[in-house]
Amino acid sequence: MKNIVLASTSTIYGGKYLEYLQPVIEELFAGVDEIVFIPFARPSGISHDEYTAKAAAFFEKIGIGVKGLHSFPDAVKALQQAKGFFTGGGNTFLLVKQLHEQGLMQELGNQVRAGKPYLGVSAGTNIGGITMGTTNDMPIVYPPSFQTMGLLPFNINPHYLDPIPDLPHMGETREVRIQEFHVFNDIPVIGLREGSWLRVKGDEIVLGGGLSARVFAKGREAYEVKGGMPISR
Predict the structure, then answer these.
(1) Whole-model pTM?
(2) What is the chain's percent helix, strand, coil content, to nearest 5?
(3) Which helix or strand (DSSP H or E) is residue 187 part of?
(4) 135: buried, middle or exposed (CB in 10 Å: 19+, 13-18, 0-12)?
């Protein structure tokens, strides 16, 4: 049974790293004493070791050890033997490139579908969808494929922003970008606002965090799903 948390962001304004998610994380990883951290997205270009240390500092507070996937001599074997996973945010293009080039994307998905708990934030959330095609990130590298784990029957747009009335034009809105995506793709998209997450247990997907999420499907009017409500395709 799938056991997953996919959050829009790791840190909400004024808070500390993963702090707002702590109760959800403790529930997700109940009974797990060590997880594998996937640091490949490298926010701000920090090293894999620095990023792993940041994640480990949080998880130490809740009694869970962390090892970076980059530190294992056999990454595939590390995924197979892991008790749980956390993929951090950063650049989705870089994350997806590394996972595909090392032959890890499919194996990670297989392990999560088998029931191992998975936490993703931002880029780590993007790879829970069908493709990475609705990321907000700059294409700083070119992945061999945009296909991701396909744990959910839709894509996610983390950090979803609503238009601000009376604000001078600052480029296309997220809604416009998703409409552009739907010119060429039929995949539904969930606009996940900051402070929100998806809690997946088996086939049930529930929106957490108290805010609503915006749902987009090709050829249909976008609509809102309230926090605490299930989300389906």
Answers:
(1) 0.96
(2) 30, 20, 50
(3) none
(4) buried
Beta bridge partners of 192: 158
Which residues are paired to 23 by β-bridges? none
Q: How do residues 33-73 score in pLDDT, each as one tens digit?
A: 999 999 999 999 999 999 999 999 999 999 999 999 999 99
Structure tokens at 82: 């892991």
Give the CATH number for residue 15: 3.40.50.880
Q: Which helix (H) or strand (E) holds 76?
A: helix 75-81
Assigned token pair, 130: 């069908």
**Which residues form the domain of 63?**
3-225
Beta-bridged to residue 225, according to DSSP, are 213
Residues that are catalytic: 122, 137, 159
User: Per the domain annotation, does 199 fall within a domain?
Assistant: yes
pLDDT tens across 131-186, in order? Answer: 999 999 999 999 999 999 999 999 999 999 988 877 776 678 999 999 999 999 99
Nearest residue to 227 (alpha-carbon basis) of 197, 194, 184 = 197
Distance CA 190, CA 224 (A): 10
